[in-house]
Amino acid sequence: MLKKSRVTAIIILASIILATTPAMLLAQGQIQTAPAQQIVTLAEKAAQQVQNLIDMIKADQDALAQIQTAGLTYEFNENVTLFSTGLIYLEAAQTALANSENQDAVDSTVEALNVFREVYRSVHSILQATDLQKGDLIENQGLLEAITRQLQKIDRLREI
Prior knowledge:
Blueprint: H1 2-59, H2 61-69, H3 73-98, H4 102-129, H5 137-159
């Protein structure tokens, strides 16, 4: 009789464990996917901000003339090219995320964010050197700070 109770208890415990294991694995996958998705979304927003800045400058002939007068056209064009590299990293991150390769997605996103931050800083240095958008520099600093905070957050998550 005692053996039957032990066998029954073991079977019940095994059933409970087997029944809850898929739910635990599903929840764990969602926890791992959510931060990667959030980081990729942040990079998409950062890319859009940088793209908007570049487009605004390209659309303003006076701004382009001032950049040319200051002798910074080459630097501006190099930053536009570097931005394209960041977009390649972002596309790789999106593909990795779609394939559930979260670590690859995060790695590519970090590279993209680093590129976007560098381009954003460089373009603003060019604007500052040509006395363009003085009042907007404070507002744009917020995006740089947000990118830096997210990169620091990623570093902390990697340490865990």
